[in-house]
TrEMBL record:
PANTHER family: EXPORT PROTEIN (PTHR42718:SF42), MAJOR FACILITATOR SUPERFAMILY MULTIDRUG TRANSPORTER MFSC (PTHR42718). It is found in: Cell membrane. It comes from Streptomyces cremeus. This is MFS transporter. It comes from the Bacteria. The chain crosses the membrane at residues 19-42, 62-79, 86-105, 111-132, 144-166, 172-194, 206-226, 232-254, 275-296, 302-325, 337-355, 367-391, 403-424, 444-463.
Length: 497
């Protein structure tokens, strides 16, 4: 299909418009299902492959490491070489890596395959929404994003149940292998029915050095945190930690001095943008630590099967699916400060309620209340968080701002999954003992809740409620472009969550 046909003129009700939605939903659902399923499968993976707790941490973090380090570069590649082309490459790459995950004979191969999956995710994840933004007419774009979010939400809601069923039934390997038929359906539809699009103004060199430095810094810090429980303060652990911090400093220097950095530090001159990203770090660090440990707690300590554990966490996703749009509308009326303060506090309360979940825990009395409170908090804060990130910069940099915020969320989750077991005193074999894991889980949940309370305090003291529009001068000064006054709660942007 000719590139000129993608000049943002498609309608949602047109045949091509429906194909675009189907393609992007299939692609994003692959990554969403995978992230949902893996946590539920961890105990079975550890048992079958003989992996210790560090192996389980790397099973999660290898994916997040390459995804967080390369997601901004993936978006830039799509803008330059064609969003459909890079999206399709990402889907094929992700499916091939998923096949390798499903066939992995040991934990080392699985971890390496998960890192390859993250590269595919970095190519397809930004391309999914970019295809919608580039393909649809501005009048239909908000509706298209809403349909994409809603249909993707259904996939997320099915994920825990499907993951548990696969783990208890055909086996945990099918949690990865299921991506192969999804890709086989997605790729022909994309090539045959989705228009190509590029950014005609995309030029200059890619910031490959920045991407490499970011990934290396995260890898070194993550390695130090994961290996510390077994190795202690050894020269290797301390050296990797110190070197990781030094490489992170080099990354910031490169981003400050390069003509076209992948993460322009000038964006952080906006106090609102900086504040929202700090809140994002707190929120998603706590979320990632919680869901990593909760899936293990329900199976190792409470004695749930994988299916029961996946289904037990379903209320959070169902609440997000049905109430996120209303939460976004409420935030438009009240401004982001209240929901970004109240939401993390509700999530913190939900995590503290999880302290009631021990051996022979009752689902109705112990698990369900915690999940409902947790889900209510997530509903309250997630949509306003995304909308406020996009509203804090000029229109021309909304995509870049969203990418940076996404990368921040992934990096926060990466560090949390690495650090939380260390801080809670979990040994390498903790997940094999209900008594030991239960004791460390009870130490970890207040830590997660404390990070959320910190995020709420930061939101309350630093996030501003815009009065209808951000000052034009702020857009010009901080974002480096001449732009009209922004509409922070514009529906189109709010749908980008």
């Amino acid at each position: 299909m000719a590139e000129t046909e993608s000049a943002g003129g498609l309608r949602v009700g047109s045949a091509t418009g429906r194909w675009v939605l189907l393609t992007t939903v299939l692609g994003s659902s692959m990554a969403m299902l995978d992230s949902t399923v893996v946590n539920v499968a961890l105990p079975r993976i550890g048992k079958d492959l003989g992996a210790d707790l560090a192996g389980l941490q790397w099973t999660v973090n290898a994916y997040m490491l390459t995804l967080a380090g390369l997601i901004l570069l993936g978006g830039a590649l799509g803008d330059r070489y064609g969003r459909r082309k890079v999206f399709v490459v990402g889907v094929v790459w992700f499916a091939a890596a998923s096949l390798l995950c499903g066939l992995a004979p040991n934990a080392t191969v699985l971890i390496a395959a998960r890192a390859l999956q993250g590269i595919g995710g970095a190519l397809l994840t930004p391309g999914s929404l970019a295809l919608i933004q580039a393909s649809f007419h501005p009048d239909d774009r908000a509706r298209a994003v809403g349909l994409w979010s809603g249909l993707g939400g259904i996939g997320a809601a099915v994920g825990p149940f499907l993951g548990g069923w696969l783990v208890d039934g055909p086996g945990w390997r099918w949690a990865f292998l299921i991506n192969v038929p999804l890709a086989a359906l997605c790729v022909p539809v994309a090539l045959g029915h989705v228009p190509e699009s590029k950014d005609p103004q995309a030029h200059g060199r890619f910031d490959v050095l920045g991407a490499v430095l970011a990934a290396v810094a995260l890898a070194l810090v993550t390695y130090a945190l994961i290996e510390a429980p077994a190795r202690g303060a050894s020269a290797v652990v301390v050296g990797c930690g110190v070197l990781g911090v030094a490489v992170a400093g080099a990354f910031l220097y490169v981003e400050r001095t390069r003509a076209e950095p992948m993460m322009p530090l000038t964006l952080f001159a906006s106090r609102q943008f900086t504040a929202i990203n700090v809140v994002t770090l707190c929120v998603y660090a706590a979320f990632s630590g919680f869901f990593f440990l909760a899936a293990l707690q329900l199976q190792v300590v409470a004695g749930y099967s994988a299916l029961q554990a996946g289904t037990a966490m379903l209320p959070t996703t169902v609440l997000m699916l049905f109430l996120s749009a209303r939460s976004g509308e409420l935030a438009q009326r009240t401004g982001p400060r209240v929901p970004l303060t109240v939401g993390p506090l509700l999530c913190a309360a939900g995590m503290l309620l999880m302290l009631r979940v021990g051996e022979d825990a009752s689902y109705l009395a112990d698990v369900l209340p915690a999940m409902v409170v947790m889900g209510t908090g997530m509903v309250t804060l997630v949509a306003p968080l995304t909308a406020t990130v996009l509203a804090s910069v000029a229109d021309g940099r909304a995509g870049l701002a969203s990418g940076i915020n996404n990368a921040a969320a992934r990096a926060a989750g990466l560090v949390a999954v690495a650090a939380l077991p260390l801080l809670a005193g979990m040994g390498p074999d903790a997940y094999r003992s209900a008594q030991e894991f239960g004791a460390t889980f009870r130490r970890a949940m207040p830590m997660c809740a404390g990070v959320l309370v910190l995020g709420a305090l930061i939101a309350f003291t630093t996030v501003r409620n815009p009065k209808g529009a951000a000052p034009e001068s702020e857009c010009r000064t901080h974002c480096g472009v001449d732009a009209p006054p922004l509409e922070p709660d514009r529906q189109e942007r709010g749908g980008s969550s």
